[in-house]
Recover the amino acids of this structure.
């Protein structure tokens, strides 16, 4: 898998990731063992340039970051100046719909259904659902981070915290505040045939391709109507992030 990891790791319907994160999180495997295995199994002198090695290094970066910035251990953002500009919406209705996978956006809902059913979610989809919660529903990233830690079998506090702060644009090397994942665009890029969505939302299997990601088409088959209008939510979020910038 290491050879094809860079090409396949963003395709949620593919068996393209190592699936070793639960073993890393509970200490069965160490990052050193992973890198040693990668080195010994590679004929490339530049094996450390492999994307999988980069992801292992990111994991360790977040752990070291928390040592140097201990306030993060208390759920404080790496960039408090950015968060100070954000007006989080405390909306239990929106948050509950996200938690249950009932937002009306199939790629988001499929990810949440996978998490609830298995205790694991594909990394690309983790970014999609995190962006959706923080940037479009404008719920505090801490709510999503805590929910993940309650349900993930590979829940690692440092990695989880770092990932959520990245998504909310308040972390180290974070997403620029103006980069907001469009669920439909993400679906088109990484699940164009709708195979991932059809697996976790089987009622949509009767549709084909990108129809499976269409909120309107999905609602006709029993899925909930979209809880937000994407364009309006994006505009409101951008205005909030730009406040006092």
């Amino acid at each position: 898998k290491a050879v094809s990891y860079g090409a396949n790791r963003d395709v949620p319907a593919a068996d393209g990731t190592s699936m070793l994160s639960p073993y890393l999180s509970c200490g069965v495997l160490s990052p050193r063992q992973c890198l040693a295995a990668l080195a010994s199994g590679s004929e490339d002198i530049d094996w450390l340039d492999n994307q999988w090695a980069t992801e292992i290094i990111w994991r360790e970066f977040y752990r070291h970051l928390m040592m140097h910035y201990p306030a993060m251990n208390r759920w404080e953002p790496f960039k408090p100046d950015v968060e100070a500009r954000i007006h989080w919406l405390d909306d239990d209705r929106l948050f509950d719909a996200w938690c249950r996978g009932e937002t009306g956006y199939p790629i988001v809902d499929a990810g949440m259904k996978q998490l609830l059913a298995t205790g694991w979610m594909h990394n690309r989809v983790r970014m999609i659902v995190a962006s959706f919660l923080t940037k479009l529903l404008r719920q505090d990233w801490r709510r999503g981070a805590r929910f993940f830690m309650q349900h993930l079998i590979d829940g690692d506090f440092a990695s989880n915290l770092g990932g959520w702060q990245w998504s909310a644009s308040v972390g180290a090397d974070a997403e620029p505040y103006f980069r907001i994942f469009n669920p439909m665009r993400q679906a088109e890029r990484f699940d164009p045939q709708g195979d991932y969505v059809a697996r976790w939302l089987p009622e949509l299997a009767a549709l084909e391709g990108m129809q499976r990601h269409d909120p309107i088409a999905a609602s006709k088959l029993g899925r909930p109507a979209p809880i937000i209008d994407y364009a309006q939510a994006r505009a409101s979020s951008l205005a909030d992030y730009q406040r006092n910038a």
Notes: The chain has a mean pLDDT of 93. Residues 51-68 form the longest helix (18 residues).
